[in-house]
Design goal:
This protein is of the alpha/beta class and 683 residues long. It has 22 helices and 19 strands. Helices cover 44% and strands 11% of the residues. Helix 5 (155-180) packs antiparallel against helix 7 (207-228) and helix 14 packs antiparallel against helix 18. Residues 1-87 have low confidence and may be disordered.
């Protein structure tokens, strides 16, 4: 044993010496040595992509975090010393692994792989989490099958499609052969420095990897072109086909596989497979956490605690029922505006996106400006709540909150904010209140809200009748839709950035993600009740009944034209969930004065853009009328945050001030500290 270890040590010293000589000579492994390029993980900024919003990605561009500790499975044997680390971008041959150690780790990989399979199979066998992927797979086959049918049913079109890709591959092959003989040639597909998947220099410098990169890009472009040129597809079918092509393209990218990614090959050789052992260990943990479904970790959530370093604006729980906790935040000014503010967040996410930390907390900023802020914190529902529909969320949510606010403050009228689907609920509530003569809401602000679903954005691929029926079938047994389903749907809108980048980093590189508050919030999903979610999907996305004046709630027909209170309608230019154009068209439906404002960025970063560190601009203009494109052309671009603009609008509508109010006001008992208990429930 001692002799073996001595031999290994000698071997490593010899390799290290050779590498040192090579570096001094300006070569490594017979090839010119290259400086280590700056990796994405070395930057303070993470991959942008507008979240494009997935917002999440947009907001990622400013994230600074420290790497978290990587989970380490128990080793099967004492690890050997690490191989010399090559400079990034070196040829693969420059990294020579210890093959004995590589074999040892291969055995450990088999063990961790068995654990992965067990984590997946155990819930299936127990019935705890039946595999519901059949419907999604069938839908993908149907959508892509329509495209294939179009191109195959006409022989001329078939030949055209084949020739389009074949000629490009012939050109690529010819140029690659010329390049391998030492000739300098222009690539068929130019290198795109914005695509971080192919940032490693070997994707350009190695003829083999450059061939793989170009072949992949040509194939993806060809597939997208087939969808775009199918004249027989209706808009929804085309959107679905494009969506599934995007999923396949992201999943099959050569950057996702060890054998076709030079960086992953070097990493695996350098670490002698230890990275794959760690990755499989994390994969098993994440499947176990998802009870048989992969719960992709995007952030080291262990670094955050609600009420400790997230959602820490001081406040109290002043009301609670089966559906909400009502939070009132402690004042920081001697005087406050007389009219209270009620924030209604979406029920598909948790409210603390508006209170991540003091530097970017919209809630804290409002309190510091002298507003008395109340926030609804929705319950994370379970089977008991299956029959809680839109009317319940209106009555037990907004209406009971209004009653509690009046009891505490003595004010009958309030201003409100509705965010995303919380805004849709608020619009429904306003129309209902207008129909019955209830004037307790005096003004309203919408954050990235849709009320007209004619052009609903990229989520439309999940909202056709067949898909909704499948969702309803899934909800029937439990009474709710698991939060992971919605989270996965949002991630699939940006699969390269929000899925596969983490798959590669976590499970192949074996690196645990960084601690990042926004992504921790993003992964903290909530369930949706059967009755509420079904109503929302069918009445809004499928029927668009609110915009048409056909929606019925509690026997009352709703008409947005009867809503005549002042409205501040904030959209986000790059929002792919609630597109700015869709929000614009919805804003035109209200009967009163509407200030439409368009923020830069997307669904999250466009809203959370604090004035003391603004990242984006905003646009203001006339009341929303006519075409959205015309409004944009005439709009005035303004630098910085839209928050002060909104505050001036709020002050103009209700300028009177009164002494500051403490939470509960002595009228209702304090039930606990903010952020409360409902928000802490995990799926």
């Amino acid at each position: 044993m001692a002799q073996t270890k001595g031999a290994e040590g000698a071997e490593r010293k010899t390799r290290a010496a050779r590498a040192g000589v090579a570096r001094k000579a300006g070569t490594v492994g017979g090839a010119p040595a290259k400086a280590r390029p700056k990796k994405v993980s070395d930057d303070a900024e993470m991959t942008p992509a507008a979240a494009a919003h997935a917002e999440i990605i947009e907001a990622l561009t400013a994230a600074k975090a420290q790497p978290s500790e990587t989970p380490k499975p128990k080793p099967a044997a004492a690890p050997a010393p690490a191989s010399p680390q090559p400079a990034g971008g070196e040829p693969i041959a420059a990294t020579i692994p210890n093959f004995e150690r590589l074999a040892q780790n291969a055995t450990r990989m088999i063990e961790e792989g068995s654990r992965v399979m067990a984590a997946y199979m155990r819930p299936l066998e127990s019935g705890e989490n039946p595999n519901n992927a059949t419907n999604e797979i069938a839908d993908a086959i149907r959508s892509l099958g329509k495209v294939a049918e179009y191109w195959l049913k006409d022989p001329a079109r078939t030949l055209e499609a084949q020739a389009a890709i074949s000629s490009k591959f012939v050109d690529l092959w010819g140029k690659t052969l010329r390049r391998m003989t030492g000739e300098t040639v222009e690539p068929v597909v130019p290198y795109d420095s914005r695509d971080k998947r192919f940032s490693d220099p070997q994707w350009r410098e190695s003829p083999v990897f450059d061939f793989i990169r170009q072949a992949y890009a040509m194939t993806v472009d060809w597939a997208n072109d087939l969808v775009a040129r199918d004249d027989e597809l209706d808009p929804l079918a085309r959107a679905k086909a494009s969506f599934y092509v995007r999923q396949a393209a992201s999943a099959l990218s050569p950057s996702n596989f060890i054998g076709t990614n030079p960086e992953l090959l070097r990493t695996t050789f350098k670490e002698e497979g230890e990275n794959l052992v760690r990755g499989l260990h994390m994969l098993a943990e994440d499947i176990e956490a998802g009870k048989g479904v992969l719960r992709l970790r995007q952030s080291d959530s262990t670094k955050f605690r609600l009420g400790e370093n997230m959602a820490i604006t001081p406040g109290k729980v002043v009301w609670r029922n089966d559906l909400i906790e009502l939070l009132q935040y402690a004042p920081t000014t001697e005087k406050v505006y007389k009219r209270p503010l009620l924030i209604t967040p979406p029920w598909i996410n948790k409210f603390y996106i508006l209170d991540l930390n003091p530097e970017k907390s919209f809630i804290k900023w409002c309190v510091d400006q002298g507003l008395t802020v109340f926030v609804i914190s929705w319950v994370n529902p379970d089977s008991r709540h299956r029959n809680k529909g839109f009317d319940a969320y209106m009555r037990e949510g907004i209406f009971e909150a209004l009653e509690a606010i009046e009891t505490i403050t003595g004010e009958r009228q309030v201003s409100t904010i509705g965010y995303c689907v919380g805004g849709t609920l608020m619009a429904v509530t306003l129309a209902y209140m207008a129909a019955i003569g209830d004037d307790r809401i005096a003004s309203t602000t919408f954050f990235t809200t849709q009320v007209d679903f004619t052009d609903p954005g990229e989520l439309k691929v999940f909202t056709d009748d067949a898909t909704i029926r499948n969702v309803e079938s899934d909800m029937a047994s439990t009474g709710y839709l698991d939060g992971s389903r919605m989270a996965n749907a949002f991630n699939m809108l940006r699969p390269t950035d929000l899925i596969w980048s983490y798959v590669v980093n976590n499970y192949i590189k074996g690196q645990a993600p960084m601690a990042f508050d926004l992504l921790t919030w993003n992964s903290d999903s909530t369930r949706m009740t059967q009755a509420n979610h079904s109503f929302y999907l069918r009445e809004c996305y499928l029927k668009n009944s609110l915009a048409k004046g056909e929606m019925m709630v509690d026997g009352v027909r709703l008409d947005l034209r009867k809503v005549t209170i002042p409205i501040y309608d904030l959209a986000a230019r790059e929002d792919h969930i609630a597109p700015a154009k869709s929000a614009f068209n919805g804003a035109k439906l209200f009967g009163g004065p509407v200030r439409y404002v368009m923020a830069g960025s997307g669904h999250i970063a466009g809203v959370v853009n604090p004035p003391y560190k603004p990242k984006y601009q905003y646009w203001t203009g006339a009341r929303p009328e006519g075409a959205f494109e015309d409004w944009v052309k005439a709009a005035t671009e303004r630098p910085g945050s839209w928050w002060p603009n909104w505050l001036e609008w709020m002050k103009a509508n209700a300028p009177e001030m009164v002494p500051a109010r403490e939470p509960g006001g002595g009228k209702l008992p304090v039930l606990g500290d903010a952020p409360g208990e409902y928000v802490k429930a995990r799926c």
